[in-house]
Write a structure and sequence with these properties.
The complex is a heterodimer. Chain A is mainly α. Chain A has two domains: 32 residues; 71 residues. Helix content of chain A is 72%, strand content 0%. Chain A is built from five helices and no strands. In chain A, α2 crosses α5 and α4 packs antiparallel against α5. Chain B folds into two domains: 54 residues, no CATH class; 175 residues, Cytochrome Bc1 Complex, Chain C. Chain B contains eleven helices and two strands. Classes of the chains: A mainly alpha, B mainly alpha. Chains A and B meet through α1, α3, α4 and α5 of A and α5, α6, α7, α8 and α9 of B. The complex binds protoporphyrin IX containing FE (HEM). Protoporphyrin IX containing FE (HEM) binds next to α5, α7, α8 and α11 of chain B.
C-alpha cells in the first residue's frame, strides 16, 4: 500500500531535522567562535562587525550615520513589509521585483563587506 | 453544535485534496474556521490540505528548521545563563570561564552560536521560498508581516547576543548603536538608555542587554512564532509536522 503523503512529509521533515542537528553538533565540536579582544587589552583601533551586520558596517563607512544605519535599513524593512501590497496594486511582477531588488542590495553589501573587511584588510 | 462536532473530526482526520478539488471544497472549512476563531488545535490539524504542499520541495522544511534552531537556542541559552554574568568586565570573563572551565561549557556555547548562525540562513532562505511560491499574497499578507517582524527580532537577538560577549568589539558595536539611537530627535537619548543601558566603549555587556536578550526578545519571538503557525492554518496554508 502506498504510504500517505503526510507520513512521507513527516519522515522527510524528521530527516531534515536530523541533518540540521548533526551539522550543528559537528560545527560546535570543530569550530569555536572567537571571543574577540579582552577589555583589559590595549584598545583595538578598528572593530570588524560580525558577518550578519556586515551590510551595516559598509553602509556606515560611506554614508552619514542617520542615513546608513537608520534610514536605509528602515526603508529596506518597510519595503519588505510592503511586498504583498506592491504585488496587489501594481501586479505580481512588482512584488518579485521589489523583493529581489532589496534582497540583492543586502547581498551586495554583504559581499562588499566580506571583500573589504574580511579579505582586503587582511592581505 | 454541529460545527463543533465537525471540528473534532477535522482534528482527528485530516483529509487530502488535490489542488483542483481544493478550490471548491475549501470553502466549508473556511466557514468552519471562522466559527471557531479561537480554536488553536483546529488550525494545527486542518481538515483539507492541498497535495502540492505535501512535497518536501515546497517548503524545503525551512520554516520548521528555523523553529528547531529557535528551540536549540532556547535550551542552550538557558544552560549558558547558569554561568554567564553580565557586566563591563564580568561578561567577558564569564564567557572565558564557560569556554574553558565549566564542564561541557564550550560545547554549549558553540551550539548556541552555530544554531544562531544557521537560523539566520534558514530564516532568510525561508523568506525567499515564500516569495518564490508567491505565498505572501492575500490571504497571507498578515502572516508575511508577522514574518518580517520575526526577521527583525532574529537580527536584534543576534546583535544583543554579540554584545553579551563583552569584548572590545562588542563595546564598539554597543557604542555605535547607542550613538545611532541618540540621533533620533527628542527620544534618542532615552531610547539608547532603554535599549542598551550604559555600555562602555570596551564592553557591550550590560544587565539591560542581558534582560532583553534572555527574556523579553525570546518571549516576544516565541509568541510571534506561535501566532505565525496559527495563521498558516487560518490562511489555509502548508502543513508542518
Ligand atoms: C523565526 C522565524 C520563522 C519561523 C520559525 C517560521 C516558521 C514557518 C513555518 C514552520 C511555516 C510553514 C511552512 C514552511 O515551513 O515553510 C511558515 C510559513 C510562512 N512563513 Fe514563516 N517563519 C519564520 C520567518 C518568516 C519570515 C521572515 C517570513 C517573511 C518575511 C515568513 C513568512 C511566512 C509565510 C507568508 C508563510 C506561509 C507560507 C505558505 O503558506 O506557503 N516567515 N513559517
Amino acid at each position: 500500500m502506498a504510504r500517505s503523503p503526510i507520513n512521507n512529509l513527516k519522515e522527510n521533515e524528521g530527516i531534515a531535522a536530523l541533518i540540521f542537528l548533526i551539522l550543528c553538533t559537528l560545527l560546535a565540536f570543530k569550530i569555536s567562535p572567537g571571543v574577540g579582544t579582552s577589555n583589559l587589552a590595549p584598545a583595538v583601533p578598528h572593530a570588524t562587525a560580525p558577518w550578519i551586520f556586515g551590510p551595516f558596517q559598509v553602509l556606515l563607512l560611506y554614508l552619514p550615520p542617520w542615513l546608513g544605519a537608520l534610514a536605509v535599513p528602515a526603508l529596506i524593512i518597510i519595503g519588505l513589509a510592503g511586498v504583498p501590497w506592491a504585488a496587489h496594486y501594481w501586479g505580481d511582477k512588482w512584488g518579485m521585483r521589489i523583493f529581489s531588488a532589496l534582497f540583492s542590495l543586502v547581498l551586495i553589501l554583504l559581499f562588499w563587506f566580506m571583500v573589504k573587511e574580511l579579505w582586503w584588510t587582511r592581505l | 453544535m454541529k460545527d463543533s462536532k465537525e471540528t473534532e473530526t477535522s482534528v482527528q482526520r485530516p483529509i487530502l485534496m488535490s489542488d483542483h478539488d481544493q478550490k471548491e471544497k475549501l470553502s466549508p472549512v473556511h466557514k468552519l474556521e471562522g466559527n471557531s476563531r479561537n480554536n488553536f488545535i483546529n488550525h494545527v490539524r486542518p481538515r483539507f490540505i492541498s497535495e502540492r504542499v505535501l512535497s518536501v520541495f515546497y517548503t524545503f522544511c525551512l520554516g520548521g528548521l528555523s523553529f528547531l534552531a529557535f528551540l536549540m537556542l532556547g535550551i542552550t541559552g538557558i544552560l549558558l545563563m547558569f554561568h554567564y554574568q553580565p557586566g563591563a568586565s564580568s561578561g567577558y570573563s564569564s564567557v572565558l570561564t564557560i569556554g574553558s572551565v565549566i564542564p561541557y561549557g564550550y560545547i554549549i556555547r558553540n551550539l548556541h552560536y552555530w544554531s544562531a548562525q544557521i537560523m539566520i540562513v534558514t530564516v532568510n532562505l525561508h523568506m525567499v521560498r515564500v516569495v518564490w511560491t508567491h505565498s505572501y499574497k492575500p490571504p497571507r499578507q498578515l502572516n508575511w508581516l508577522v514574518g518580517v517582524g520575526l526577521l527583525v527580532l532574529v537580527l536584534v537577538l543576534d546583535f544583543t547576543g554579540y554584545l553579551l560577549v563583552g569584548s572590545q568589539e562588542s563595546g564598539a558595536a554597543a557604542t555605535v548603536a547607542a550613538n545611532l539611537l541618540k540621533q533620533i530627535p527628542g527620544l534618542g537619548t532615552a531610547l539608547a538608555q532603554i535599549a542598551l543601558g550604559e555600555p562602555s566603549a570596551l564592553s557591550g555587556s550590560t544587565l539591560v542587554v542581558y534582560v532583553w536578550h534572555c527574556a523579553v526578545l525570546p518571549l516576544a519571538m516565541l509568541w510571534l512564532q506561535l501566532y505565525h503557525f496559527w495563521r498558516i492554518r487560518r490562511d489555509g496554508g502548508v502543513r508542518p509536522l
